Amino acid sequence: MQTFPNFALYGDLSDRMMSLAAGLGPSQEIYSIDESFIGLDGVRGDLVERAHKIRSRILQWVGIPCGIGIGATKTLAKLANHIAKTAERKPGVYPDHLAMVCNLSALAPAEREAVFTATEVGEVWGIGRRISKQLVDGGIKTVQDLVRMDAATVRRGWSVVLERTVRELQGTQCIGLDDAPAPKKEVACTRSFGHPVTDLFSLTEAVTAFSSRAAEKIRKQNSLASVVMVFVRTSPFRKEAQYSRSICIPLRRPTSDTGAIVNAAVLGLQAIYRAGFKYAKAGVMLMDLQPDGELQGELDLEDGDSVADIADKARLMTALDAINSRYGRGTMTMASAGVEGKQKNWVMRQERMTPRYTTCIEDMPIARAV
After folding, report:
1. Which helix (H) or strand (E) holds 126?
2. pLDDT digits (tens, 9 = 90+) for 12-66
3. CB–CB of 287/248 below 8 Å?
4. SS3 state at 103
5. What pTM does this model have?
6. Domain ranges of the chain
7. If 107 and its partner were Cys, which of 59, 112, 144, 166 is the partner (CB 3.0–4.6 Å)?
8. Class of domain 187-337
């Protein structure tokens, strides 16, 4: 039986796990939904013991097992994480004491060399299949082989990126900890439909919902969008008439206002929509993003152009986000997103969706005494 994803649940569990992992050190870079780097500068005591306590806390409080790798650089920490997980899942590959938590900096030189020799070069962070094959063909088969290489030679033979990787493996920090990631340059919201969609009305509902979500995302990172891109396409896996089209709509002035973004996206949809096709996916991308504090001044040529009008729209969006944050996403939406409670055939199928154990009280499991 197939289970459909519940992104709200996954995001909530990720937030809980990251908040606990942050207790390992003073700074944190969230790298992905299930991975983060923790800076350990100034942390004293037994790092392995501290890491085991954090790991146990995450397992007990969130229910997610994890591996923790410790190294002098980000590349070494990623490699240590791989070793920690592999030592637990495949006993005998690495020493048992490296399972779950691996601190490469604490290993004796001989043991560290043995661990590197037991690890294929393709397991190093940043080395893809193509580079890995080139290295293996050149006799560089293990991490230890790569560590022994001269960094300047690597740069001449491959690239400055691989040189940076080698230097990191040798203990020279080349990739800093980014505890305040740069805002994204593009933000997208796309979805495959639960059932084929043929009518413009349903597509408009979907594009409105996607535009609203994308606008909310750029407001969170304090950005403004200059271009709205919207696309629709049929399924390439169905034996039927195929159609795929996208269009970019420049905005007269950069904005994060949901109304302006939705209006542009719907106009774009109307321009590319063609009747007679069974659409399987649509999406909206906000591009050419810029900080909301760098808005170029213009003459007030139209209604809504004044500084006061722009400030009013910003306050309205702040209120909109606050209401949806408190009472649930979708509490307040644009009218073109459709009426709440009405069956929408473009929504992803959720008959067997993972229950929202942590974000919805109705989905919480109930224990009854027998």
Report:
1. none
2. 888 999 999 999 999 898 888 889 999 998 888 899 999 999 999 999 999 999 9
3. yes
4. strand
5. 0.68
6. 7-169, 187-337
7. 112
8. alpha beta
